[in-house]
Amino acid sequence: xxxxxxxxxxxxxxxxxxxxxxxxxxxxxxxxxxxxxxxxxxxxxxxxxxxxxxxxxxxxxxxxxxxxxxxxxxxxxxxxxxxxxxxxxxxxxxxxxxxxxxxxxxxxxxxxxxxxxxxxxxxxxxxxxxxxxxxxxxxxxxxxxxxxxxxxxxxxxxxxxxxxxxxxxxxxxxxxxxxxxxxxxxxxxxxxxxxxxxxxxxxxxxxxxxxxxxxxxxxxxxxxxxxxxxxxxxxxxxxxxxxxxxxxxxxxxxxxxxxxxxxxxxxxxxxxxxxxxxxxxxxxxxxxxxxxxxxxxxxxxxxxxxxxxxxxxxxxxxxxxxxxxxxxxxxxxxxxxxxxxxxxxxxxxxxxxxxxxxxxxxxxxxxxxxxxxxxxxxxxxxxxxxxxxxxxxxxxxxxxxxxxxxxxxxxxxxxxxxxxxxxxxxxxxxxxxxxxxxxxxxxxxxxxxxxxxxxxxxxxxxxxxxxxxxxxxxxxxxxxxxxxxxxxxxxxxxxxxxxxxxxxxxxxxxxxxxxxxxxxxxxxxxxxxxxxxxxxxxxxxxxxxxxxxxxxxxxxxxxxxxxxxxxxxxxxxxxxxxxxxxxxxxxxxxxxxxxxxxxxxxxxxxxxxxxxxxxxxxxxxxxxxxxxxxxxxxxxxxxxxxxxxxxxxxxxxxxxxxxxxxx
Length: 663
Prior knowledge:
By secondary structure, the chain is of the alpha+beta class. The protein has helices spanning 3-18, 117-130, 138-147, 152-157, 208-217, 237-240, 267-275, 291-310, 323-327, 332-352, 443-450, 454-463, 468-474, 544-555, 608-613, 638-656, and strands spanning 30-41, 57-67, 79-86, 101-107, 171-172, 177-178, 186-193, 223-232, 252-259, 361-370, 387-395, 410-415, 428-433, 486-487, 492-495, 501-510, 558-568, 593-605, 625-626. The strands form 2 sheets. Strands 10, 11, 12, 13, 14, 15, 16, 17, 18 and 19 form a 10-stranded antiparallel β-sheet that branches. Strands 1, 2, 3, 4, 5, 6, 7, 8 and 9 form a 9-stranded antiparallel β-sheet that branches.
């Protein structure tokens, strides 16, 4: 067996999991339903009467229906039916397999597109390289053209199914399994709904497959699958290690899988389904997995399962809104944008071994003395006279390590309750950047910008999706982090002590309240680029910004003033109201900036692990501050709303990435 290729596949699979959402399965992570079932073995003759099929019997089972890669059910994909049968007896195929379980792993495509471990390694290397760019596995296709050109259509059609319902589709094992002790006997499995395969219209919603399962199993009638076996008694390596072709052998019914009417769409059942571990190696010895693809699964499945189990929620403390609240009313388009950005920023965090954006920065700790004036609305948090511990981080938004790069600057502040010093998640995070406003209006436009190359971004500027003047305003001719003013861009709902809602934006200004410094000259053009390489003759050190700030903190007085801008609640406010537009600053004459606190930073934090552990999210705030929620990705409120959904996943990826991390 090609152990080197198996190790390559395993390493890439785990890396890709870390680069997206490592608490999810490496494959088939979207579960449509995990349902209770009954697996009933029928009387069968030789050579079928082996292992579980040796005698008639009835067994409890659970069946997990899933999609291979897509989170949107309307997208073509490969879909899974994983059956776990309980209470079986006999010798196990693998010593580490759980006692009394037999798993059958099926998909809605008769054949697989990979033959050997070496093929699989080439595929995974190509997939890892091209998938983040939205491209097919180009190198693997070129390899197949030279070695197995007939397999190219198998690859290209593998994940092109659009189901009507998981309960009305047929499924195959694709790869072979043993049937008894005879080494020349192999079989494949097949499950077919007794009511027939439904090729009707797909649903209209993001999660219609789950919804159709709920509807069908709520009708009071069971769903029954015929479980069938296809046997070859002439199985050699050429047959076993070629799952890319169908066998010209009849399938024989050996059992039924009955899914009774039930309520399965509950939090408890979803949690149970997510915790289930399936593997083709959870099997009796008479049903041992065969071939190199199954040999890879023998290693990859437990490795990915162990990685999932090791991931714990990170950065979830003191969040204002739960994930359920954040997702409750968003439409399918919003879900799709969030899913895509989650994958993109997860991959960026993994590949950079640090934050996906704002990778490089500098951190210090100090105190915030609240200096709120009497004209500021009374509230639970911003109260005059109190002092709280704070941590402040400056960074370069463009994620470039070289401080000489032409870029913006950013500042994030974390407030702590004062009960445990600088320990814990904090009680309020405020994320700010140079420039009074953002250069896009909503998360849909932001996603379009993120996934466009340099030339396409120039077109986005021409189309008005990206706004050049606002982008230019975010640039700084960077001399010191202490030169700039920083703005929150998005606004928040703000509730005074009487529960009256208004809206608030934040900014951080230098302690001397000096003017904005470092603005580019009038002729500067960004042309859609959020950052640029340094000018060729810049003589400064690559880390001059960070070292300057550390020096100032150690040897001088580093002060800032945090200010708030209160906007009364407009009439008929809605998620796309102009008050929520992140690309438009509020009038400072009508809505003046008011002092909230003076921040003094007196100690740099240089310990890399401590900086790694620091997380910031706009969703961490006291009860008087709340993210405005959107329903669509084209609404102004969608920007902050989406950030609250994307950040925790990227944070988990960053925590799971290799050490030391870049900060």
